[in-house]
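Next comes the chain:
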Amino acid sequence: MNKLARIASTLAALAALTAVAAPAAAAAEETTAAAAKALRHGRGKGAPQFPQDAARFSKRVDEKIAKQRAKVEAKMEKRGVPAARRADVRKALDEVQAEVRAAVDKAARDGVITQEEAKQVRKLAREARKAIGRQLGLEKKPKREKGTKRPAGVQIL
């Protein structure tokens, strides 16, 4: 009788675990499916998968454009840029962002973005950012090569 009671309690525990494990397994499958649909960034396992749905790619580009605009606005606010200069910056930013959106629209005509099309859009965006810097006089100064002397008249404290 003692043995029968142990077997019965083991079977009851097993049935309870099965009832709990089935929804957990289904939730794990849903989580995996959601993770597969999520946008991936970077290289390696987290790299974007191509070919990619044009709507997802376009949405991501729009998010990046909004983020870029917010950063520029915050920097102008922090540095106290005059209103006239802000208007020039916004106009240049609008022109460049319109070019990038046009490139995305062109790549998305067939509804799918290939890796090559995405690379072209990224290249255009980088070149456009550099063009804005040149247009607004915000280019980075070239670094001094190692072993060269500082210009005369510069003192090191």
Notes: Residues 62 and 104 are 10 Å apart (CA to CA).
